[in-house]
Design brief:
The protein has 116 residues and is mainly β. Strands 2-10-9-4-5-6 form a six-stranded mixed sheet, with no helix packed on it.
Length: 116
């Protein structure tokens, strides 16, 4: 089955940390650029971070220095380590293949992150 499944969301106090995981199946994960996106209450969905197949990364300005994206191709898993969390980081976090960097267009179901 072709899918992305996120995990690791939860509730945390401001200043805390969470690590999200996204496990891929049904396609060649190592060939794909992957990304984390989030939708915060009342806002448009935004791109948080991406990682190419050669592990080159990008970050939204709002998370630079606090979030780290990584991937383990042997485990078909994408990660997002989030430190120094702020209330404005609250939202549903999705992993997805990056348009133009993967032949498959796929989104996970999302995982809720709440920072209070």
């Amino acid at each position: 089955q072709v899918q992305l499944v996120e995990s690791g969301g939860g509730s945390v106090q401001a200043g805390g940390s969470l690590k999200l995981s996204c496990t891929a199946s049904g396609f060649i994960f190592s060939y794909c650029g992957m990304g984390w996106y989030r939708q915060s209450p009342g806002k448009e969905r935004e791109r948080v971070s991406t990682i190419r197949r050669d592990s080159i990364t990008t970050y939204a300005e709002s998370v630079k220095g606090r979030f780290t994206i990584s991937r383990d191709n042997a485990k078909n898993t994408l990660y997002l380590e989030m430190n120094s969390l702020k209330t404005e980081d609250t939202g549903v976090y999705y992993c997805a293949t990056v348009p133009g960097l993967c032949l498959v267009s796929l989104w996970g179901q999302g995982t809720q992150v709440t920072v209070s």
